[in-house]
Design brief:
This protein is mostly helical and 66 residues long. The chain has 4 helices and 2 strands, in the order αβααβα. The mean pLDDT is 79.
Length: 66
């Protein structure tokens, strides 16, 4: 069973991925943060967290997906 991330830890992780500081994580930011993941895995991560299909995820959405 995977350990759950606290809201504080999740916020720090999201901030480290959100390189432009706009409060959202784009698929390109995911690619830069996880360069060794295959495109299919990155796409799956994006689709799972992008609930409204706007091409980006916020920390609030990540907390919902957990």
């Amino acid at each position: 069973m995977a350990a759950e991330l606290s809201d504080e830890r999740l916020a720090r992780l999201s901030a480290s991925i959100d390189t432009d500081g706009d409060g959202y994580i784009s698929e390109s930011e995911l690619r830069r943060h996880f360069p060794d993941l295959p495109p299919e895995a990155l796409g799956a991560m994006s689709q799972e967290a992008d609930l409204d299909q706007d091409g980006r995820q916020s920390a609030a959405r990540h907390r919902t997906v957990r």
